[in-house]
Amino acid sequence: MRRLLLSLAVLAAPSLALAQSPQDVAEARIGYFRLLGLEMHDLAAMAKGEKDYDAEAAKTHAANLEALTHYSMAALLAPGTSNADLPGKTRALPAIWENMEGVQEKAEAYVAAVQNLNSVAGEGLDQLRPAVGKLGGTCKSCHDDFRAKDF
Ligand code: HEC
After folding, report:
1. Residue 143 marked in a binding site
2. Bridge partners (DSSP) listed for residue 147
3. What CATH homologous superfamily does 2-6+20-146 map to?
4. What pTM, to 2 d.p., does this model score?
5. Mind listing the pLDDT tens digit for each residue in 34-91?
6. Best residue among 143, 144, 149, 150 to mutate for probing ligand 1, ranked by most atoms within 8 Å of CB
């Protein structure tokens, strides 16, 4: 997601939007976010005490989230793929394309929280818990502004 910051100019290139059908783009985007959800799931369970803390597992989930921050979101945010364009197929609000700077800000906060998580994930539950809480807050903050409640 960090590459998002560097790649927004690409959104202006119309050819990119035509590389795949809008629905293909939305499905890929949802897949990307499902990866975040998958990695976050066990971290949240550990933080809540629903799952035993496991330093190696926590480090792996954190590292996977970090790896995904290097994935450029530019193609996933092709114009013409909001929930106004594709009703029932995506929860991405038109606000994303109207306020790309706002999306960038949320993405920056998210990336910082992932980095923070990586610095403490193997250091024990007391360190993991606040880092996961902080990270979850950055997920929610972006969803509040840019994701519809339902499909
Ligand atoms: C920069 C904004 C942003 C951040 C940060 C973000 N998300 Fe999302 N997320 C979205 C948007 C937009 C969608 C809707 C995508 C769509 O439906 O096309 C979404 C969708 C999802 C979905 C739904 C997939 C589905 O089946 O509907 C999950 C799960 C998810 N995000 C998890 C997370 C988690 C976990 C984090 C933090 C670790 C996170 N997201 C961080 C913007 C964000």
Report:
1. yes
2. 92
3. Cytochrome c/b562 (1.20.120.10)
4. 0.91
5. 999 999 999 999 999 999 999 999 999 999 999 999 999 999 999 999 999 999 999 9
6. 143
